[in-house]
Amino acid sequence: MKKIITVLIIGVMSLTSCEFIETGNAAEEILSAAATEMVETTTTVAKTTTTVAETTTTAEEITTTVAETTSVATTTTAATTTTAATTTTTPADTEADYIKSLFDTKTSDVWVSGSGVVNRILSDDNEGDRHQRFILELSTGQTILFAHNIDIAPRIDDIKKGDVIEFYGEYIYSDEGGTIHWTHHDPDGSSEGGWLKKGDTVYE
Predict the structure, then answer these.
(1) Among 45, 44, 21, 41, CA closest to 33
(2) How many CB atoms sit inside 10 A of residue 170's CB?
């Protein structure tokens, strides 16, 4: 009888021990699973943080690109404005340059207009038709002899050095810079006429 009781006690103890071992194993599995989940969660959070940082960097890059584009557009506009201002010339400069080109190419019999400053006053040419003569200097530095027919048009009586004279007439090439004549109306109206202007007075 005592042996039977002893065997039963040992069996119960073995069963209890086994239960403790199984319970311990189960607890370890639960802890292991929890630890694994925490690691995975931490990794996910880290990845999310990295993604947010990358998105922020991309946004900053986009902002920088927009700023650079605006800067380029502003610079282009400024450059365009500067170029337009540089290429603008006055009609007087254009006319003087044109007359200079006629001299450079030794071209004659071309009607021209413009203005210049009286550089020198010469004596009248009284052979044949009388001509009042003076020399104008253009903005290019070119000097031109004017032969103004005073048998057809009025004389400029008060002309003096430094006066500004506007003109329209026919250019004839010469080594000295050229001559302009026909600064008057055509008496028979068969061809184009020219003129001189000093102040508000036109001489034609």
Answers:
(1) 41
(2) 17
The domain segmentation of the chain, as residue ranges, is 1-88, 91-203
**Residues contacting 163, CB < 8 A, separation 6+:** 117, 118, 198
State which H helix or E strand residue 167 sits in: strand 164-172
> Comparing C-alpha atoms, which of 183, 194, 95 is closest to residue 146?
183
Question: Per-residue pLDDT tens for 13-42?
Answer: 444 443 433 434 444 454 355 445 444 544
Separation between Cα atoms, residue 146 and residue 64, nearest integer Å: 65
Two tokens at 135? Answer: 């020399």
Query: 103-153, pLDDT tens digit by residue?
Result: 999 999 999 999 999 999 999 999 999 999 999 999 999 999 999 999 999
Which fold does the domain 91-203 belong to in CATH?
Answer: OB fold (Dihydrolipoamide Acetyltransferase, E2P) (2.40.50)
Cross-strand bridge partners of residue 60: none
Which segments of 73-127 are extended strands (E)?
Answer: 110-121
Tell whether the torsion through CA atoms of 168, 173, 179 and 181 is positive or negative. Answer: negative
